[in-house]
Design goal:
single chain; about 140 residues; alpha+beta; 7-stranded antiparallel beta sheet; 3 helices; 7 strands; about 25% helix; globular
């Protein structure tokens, strides 16, 4: 598994950014290819994703969660194997840096092509830019 790192500065306070990121059910609103995420319990989620022509369903478990600081999860099955670590750092009282480190081991030729570093790096960057827009809009409307 190769690790990819991306970050984005968001114009919301640290706690707001962290709180929104912990709402896994909202991931389809800003993550490309994520169709559904369902919270099963405090530490487990069901995911349905679509990449290329492949739909995947899998479970994840929270590995570590430190409020307003970091959140990590990993898949609980072998397909697809992935791990993510998201950290949050206050720039000042109204701005936060969100850093994402992902490790994905693709399945099959289609997913291997889709998970090639430039595509995946671009996808993660795009997800973070959409998160920025989403969390800032939600914050403006008082939805967080």
């Amino acid at each position: 598994m190769a690790a990819l790192t991306e970050s984005v500065d968001v114009d919301v306070p640290l706690h707001t950014a962290y709180l929104q990121w912990t709402r896994f059910e909202d991931f389809p609103r800003f993550m490309d290819g994520v169709e559904e995420v369902v919270r099963l319990d405090a530490h487990h989620h069901y995911w349905r994703t679509f990449t290329g022509e492949t739909t995947r369903e899998f479970g994840t478990e929270t590995v570590e969660e430190l409020a307003d600081e970091r959140l990590s999860w990993r898949t609980v099955s072998d397909e697809p194997r992935q791990h993510a670590l998201v950290t949050f750092r206050a720039v000042d009282a109204a701005h936060t840096t969100v850093n994402v480190v992902t490790e994905i081991e693709p399945e099959g030729l289609a997913e291997t092509d889709a998970a090639a570093p430039p595509f995946t790096q671009g996808r993660v960057k795009g997800d973070l830019l959409r998160f920025k827009e989403f969390v800032e809009t939600q914050s403006e409307h008082g939805d967080i």
